[in-house]
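We give the entry.
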Amino acid sequence: MSDEHMSAAGPLDTTRTPHARLRTLPLDGVTLGRGFWSRRQATNREASLQHGYRMLEQAGNFHNFRLVTGQAQGDYRGRLFMDENVYKWLEAVAYALAASPDAALRVMADNAIGLIAAAQQPDGYLNTYFTVVEPQQRWADLDHGHELYCAGHLFQAAIAFHRALGDARLLNIATRLADHIASVFGPDKRDGAPGHPEIEMALVELYRETGERRYLDLAKFFIDRRGQGKMRGLGWYGPEYHQDRVPIRTASIMEGHAVRALYLMAGVTDLYLETGEQALFDALMRLWHDMTHGKLHVTGGAGARYEGESFGDPYELPNDQCYCETCAAIASVMWNWRLLLATGEARFADVMEQALYNGFLSGPALDGTHFFYINPLLSRGDYARAEWYSVACCPPNIMRTLASIGHYMATADTDGLQLHLYHQARVADSARGISLDIETQYPWQGAVKILVRETDGASWTLSLRIPAWCRDATIRVNGAPVSVSAEVGSYATITRVWQAGDIVELELPMPARLLEAHPLIDTTRDAVAIQRGPVLYCLEQADHDFDLMAAQID
């Protein structure tokens, strides 16, 4: 394993991205200590990933690859996008193995990679459904065929193995497929865009990993081709279901399938980060404002409607009939992370944290083997987590998010280090020779102690996010109060010539708060939510001997 791969970034690498305000840290730049997320990572590694492998075998995902290679007989099993779950599971495995080697898990991954390599066609094409079931229909159904969507997840898994483990096997498969796609689509070639966005951000990241400009150009092509109003919708939804109603540069409404929309926004933000095109950034800000000012649940959940798994109208945010797919919360984290890297503004980190601790974290059970697909804010007891789903996008998506959670906690720039999420950890910017040790019981306690472990002897700035939920934050450096001008929901900045052994103490008071919804939200009038720190609380019937529907608070 080369040093290059050991120091590479996680799922996103902005170290050479021209229009990123913040630089992602190396993969080993954040090492989590014991705490909230590390416990969930351990469950993910010890239970979820093994469970995922068994479910992929049981559901037929691996069987479909064996059909392509002649290692199995019978019918194709499952939906036409079954390949995606294998790729997302592999991405999770790569980051888990980088943090903690596991021989059994590595054998599982090697088995999966071997199947994928054997299933790739001589021209680079790779999709088990269309190879086995409809070989004459390659690229014939861009609206609902999911070929490009599955390819995007393969690219991300390949990048993860290359960065985390120095393993280029999947990357070689991915670049062959990407080159095949580039030979089919583009100016003066096949027109169109994927009905389910995802490949856009994957292609940009593949460009960052390989330096091949044609992958960035292909991502731009797919983004530019949206908004033609040509895609077939679903049910009573028209092209807006696929974000194809208007071109992205003139869009102002978050609409249609929530996961599709948010994946597209992540890809568009990636394109902006590489090109700096102002029209893209302006559109992203309009769309983010539309989502966060009337289309986002208090949990950070996105997607108000069961119908089309879609965004609703402004303030259409039902409690019991909302969809709030776990994948949508993950996609929101991915988009807000990119906006944070582009701007350095705390509001994006606030939305990211809100989704992580609530809209996302409700997805996995504590045992790591049961998962929510949808996350209603009110259940009458008729909905429970399941081991797997016939459309199993959420479980492996949860796995890859947990495996890479440290990636979202800190960044660097020319001025210094920024801490966005708080956790027991060591944070290091090896490029500058700076490292910090962080002690905290966040999110249960608001005390954060930061020890400067290494420094370069020069003046630099430590930026600490003051969450939007926090009032009266205080900071001390080496025991002395520091007067810091920082608005709520921004970053407190401390610039000085740091010395090894310096201690920063951040105190984020966490009184329980009652949140009242906007009065235009019908279902939450005369109701409040209870929040402490970043965590929203849920009343559960198992804890009480009265009907919760009759519960009142003074």
